[in-house]
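Document type: protein sequence-to-structure record

Subject area: structural biology

Format: plain text, a pair of labelled lines:
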Amino acid sequence: MTSKNHRNLLYLAMLSILPFPAQAADTFLEEVIVTARKRNESMQEVPVSVTAIAAELQKANIRDLRDLEGYSPNVTIDANGGGSGAATMTIRGVSYQEVDKSLDPSIGVVLDGVYLGTNVGQILENFDLERVEILRGPQGTLFGKNTIGGVINVIRNKPSGEFGGEVRVGTGSWGLQDIKGVVHFPIIKDKLAAKVYGVDTSDDGWVKNTTLNEDTSRKDYQSYGLSLLANPTEAFEIQFSYDRVKDRSDVAALANRNQLDQLACIFGFITPMWTPSDGCEAFDTGSDEDHVSNNHHQAASLDTDAYTLRMEWDIGPGVITSITGYRENDEYRLSEFDASAATFLYSEFFQDYEQTSQELNFTSTFSDTVEFVAGLYYWNAEYDQRQETSELWPILAGFPAGTTGRLRQTQETESYAAYFQGDWHISDAWTLTAGLRYTEEEKDFAATGQTFWLGGIEIVPAPVVDRYEDWSELTPKIGISYQHSEDVMLFASYAEGFKSGGFFGRNTDLDNLRTSYDPEYVNTFELGAKTEWLDRRLRINATLFYQEYEDKQEETLVQQSDGNVGTVVTNAASVELPGIELELIAALTENLRLRASYGYLDGEYDKYIGKDSLGNPVDLSGRDLRRAPKNTFGASATYNRNVGAGEIVADVSYRWRDEYEVISDGDPLGHVDAFGMWSASIDYIHDERYQLTLYGRNLNDERVTSVTKIGTLSSFGTWNQPRSWGAEFRYMF
């Protein structure tokens, strides 16, 4: 950690312990209600490591889920250039960065109770959200498989039943044009209400393509939706929502990071096809943090239709809840993996994906001492993906110009689960929690190895591989909590989670296609405290945890027998992950509030036999866990003051990550230095209806890059956005 970052941490720590001045009687922290355990509970009474973010969602500089990472410790959220709105997330060292749908995400993103089964589209826009809850650690009991790192639970506003809404119009850096609106209205008073919304945001992109002489990394996103809320009786509620997303934003602009020992460089020296300045980072003057030299545009598209039906029926002894979800994605992207002006390698991906889920649960306060939630869950997902790789084959395999290589994969996943979690209030102070989930899952997978096409004719066919596998798993949780006083709660827990096994489909090697990988597991021990002080003006929550990561799935890019590079997924590693988490919220005065979080994580591969770029086994034990910074820190301060007939609200925030690695074998290209970013906004609110906001993001213009290495072929990097500004007018009615 640099001395500058030490000073930032020190200043904020000193601020948090300064004596509080005399306060007005109404200066206190509001109670936060969360649904982390599938029922409404006070966050300070839930024996779970959860961060709730609500009021902060009104800030104009929080554009999407990525901007929330500084509010929760040991959490990082990045965009993934492999798909529209795709995410790369890490919670407590458990991460995922692969967009291929044959490898499941390790962190669950849940929208209005529906789990999003693919990381494409997971970076949700911040609009019309009521609350975001970040649950850290495995959530295998209540939320199920593929939540071994945690859950990001996103809850949107329900139709209010009263006429009202808001309109936002914004502009900013790179020609930003931003229009958002939502309208609530009654249809039948007290019986049927509706909400409609729309979002249209676009910009010209902050990266210049020096080869094509055009802007790239452009934003072009639209969404709209309808929600109906019916209350046929006082005890029965039905909500139906439909959402449509049309995203034509570019995927990440890929900067040239090709090294002298990779083919994208080598061919510039030994053939007249291109020069070293076309292919090699060392000679490419057209590629840096704000420029790329790709000879293809990184185009992408995503069309999503989503339907959600939620029904709640209060039957007296408890509440029956049914959540039905259906989502359908039509996806396309072009990625030029040579990241240069060389005519060497690009791929196009065509994907159709759909998922159906059904959850039925019963939440009951069974008696004065026992309450529980029990449920059944069904999940079905299907996808069909075709990948076409061009330009490479005349060079690598001697095929005629215009030859494309095609890969095809399909898969259907079915999962069934039953779960139970209950609390036994042994006394007024002590509560015992126990839960168990049983999951059965099966995957039916088919893939075609590398076929070659020329002029629409298949010139080299390949066999089809059909595989089927099923797994079953019990994931328990046990915990105890002690309510020491009204303001202090202590808890301890043990929880298990698992992520499904499967088959990795993006491969040219038939042996790899036939090989399955097993599930991975995370077992977590926690000791925590949730406390409030100074008449509810100061809230401090702390957690100590120890995680055992077993049979960790690692995806590695390796050289294959045909000279191409493929991805191999193996259960290669075990990891021990001890850590600390601290969260602080303080009402320093009636007008000034502070929020801060700190996370510490000691993440190294305990035992990891991986593969190098040629596919040879290599002992990587003792290396740092991928995408797991040892320290993370975030802080924000908000100040409001009445001015005439209006109010001014000023906010400043800072988030910082320690250094970390993004390539699992420790290649120096994958090292990311420690960095921190400042953001700020100032609002003027008049008559509680009109609001004008000016904001800036990454004000210190901190620039970092994350690199992917494709074996002996090429390497590319993606840079974060530079300093930017924006202005927004908001009308509430």
About this structure: The longest strand covers residues 430-454. Residues 552 and 573 are 5 Å apart (CA to CA). Residues 6-23 have pLDDT under 50 and may be disordered.
